[in-house]
Amino acid sequence: MSQEQLLGDGLSALGLALSRETQEKLLEYLALISKWNKVHNLTAVRDPEEMVGLHLLDSLAVLPHLKCSTLLDVGSGAGLPGIPLALARPDLKVTILDSSHKKTTFQRQAKAELGISNLEVVCSRVEQFKPAQQFDCVISRAFSDIAEFLKLTAHLVEPDGHWLAMKGVYPYEELAQAGLENVEVVPLSVPGVEAHRHLVRIEAKK
Ligand SMILES: C[S@@+](CC[C@H](N)C(=O)[O-])C[C@H]1O[C@@H](n2cnc3c(N)ncnc32)[C@H](O)[C@@H]1O
Questions:
Q1: pTM of the model
Q2: What CATH number is associated with residue 194?
Q3: Would you say the CB of residue 99 lies under 6 angstroms from ligand 1?
Q4: In UniProt terms, what function does this protein have (predicted)?
Q5: Is the CB of 103 under 6 A from ligand 1?
Q6: 145 is in an annotated binding site
Q7: Is 201 annotated as a binding residue?
């Protein structure tokens, strides 16, 4: 099946309506990752069909749970989930951050080529990042365990804000290790991705 069809079907299954133009930009973004992957090792996922599920739909599955106006994606790598979210939600101010120059050089290229005006790119270790303003929401995928994620980003979340941690299997151990009980854990079903997915929401307010 073509990437266009996979994306269209996946979005329908997720109950998401994105314009034709946005869908084209999402696929242009995948094409850019593939192009850069030939020279730089940006992501291990290289199969065109798998990329739609693991890069785009996995990121976009979070959209219905995104209730914020400023978002920081920590350890964003090739721009995941931040770039698909910025493309799908032009009203959202998205900052993507990574400590790797190679990754943020790619992120800047993607921002320029796709004309993503609601996206900022930051090259920094997250623990050293001192923005002028904190964020409503700080998100990460495949960055660290939950305790480390909260520790490294505590200075970046608004007092009324929250964290979203994108996880695979239900993270019982990570939650226990972080001393977190009674947090919201939403199971997500991602079209084209057989593995389990869970989204953990942690409020900054104690
Ligand atoms: C496994 S990758 C995940 C990339 C992306 N979120 C994804 O899901 O495809 C983790 C990323 O975190 C970045 N990273 C690790 N420690 C970091 C730190 N302390 N500050 C900023 N970025 C960091 C790495 O450079 C790497 O790009």
A1: 0.97
A2: 3.40.50.150
A3: yes
A4: Specifically methylates the N7 position of guanine in position 527 of 16S rRNA.
A5: yes
A6: no
A7: no
